[in-house]
Specification:
With 142 residues, the chain is mainly alpha-helical. It has a single domain, classed as ProQ/FinO domain (Fertility Inhibition Protein O, Chain: A, Domain 1, Orthogonal Bundle). The chain contains six helices and two strands, in the order ααααββαα. The longest helix has 21 residues, at 99-119. The relative contact order is 0.13.
């Protein structure tokens, strides 16, 4: 499956990626494989999907696929804009992102950014002895 990504993708296993591909094949005006093309989905789209799909995809699998789809950084950036359009299965406008939803998206982004910064391995700090030795080398060569 070709996927054009503007930032590192979220952790989605192949089964979930395949489910997203199935949704994109059936509703190409709503679902995009390319993360940078994903638009905020209609509130309640899960119920529309369940009604349209019946038992073709389990409720749990569909839920995970939507969670992964909506976790894409580009999707989240669009969600941070108050008044951004939401789309239904046919790609038609179906509401807008409210100020509260945009605020929560910004808060969640801030929290994710904090978490990501904590996960970055710490840079090894030089000891006082290392710093003194480096200074002595600079003096000797300079």
């Amino acid at each position: 499956m070709d996927q054009f990504i503007d930032e590192p993708t979220t952790d989605c296993d192949q089964d979930i990626a395949d489910t997203i591909a199935r949704l994109a094949a059936r509703w190409p005006m709503c679902f995009a494989l390319a993360e940078d093309l994903r638009m905020p989905l209609k509130v309640g789209i899960f119920h529309d999907l369940k009604a349209a799909l019946g038992d073709a995809i389990s409720q749990e699998r569909l839920s995970h696929a939507l969670a992964c789809y909506c976790a894409a950084p580009s999707y989240q950036r669009r969600l941070m804009k108050d008044g951004a359009p939401r789309i239904d299965l046919d790609g038609q406008r179906a509401g807008t992102v409210t100020a509260t939803e945009a605020m929560w998206a910004r808060v969640n982004r801030t929290e994710r950014d904090k978490y990501q910064r904590k996960r970055v391995p710490a840079v090894k700090r030089s000891s006082l002895a290392d710093l003194k030795a480096a200074g002595a080398r600079r003096k000797a060569t300079g």
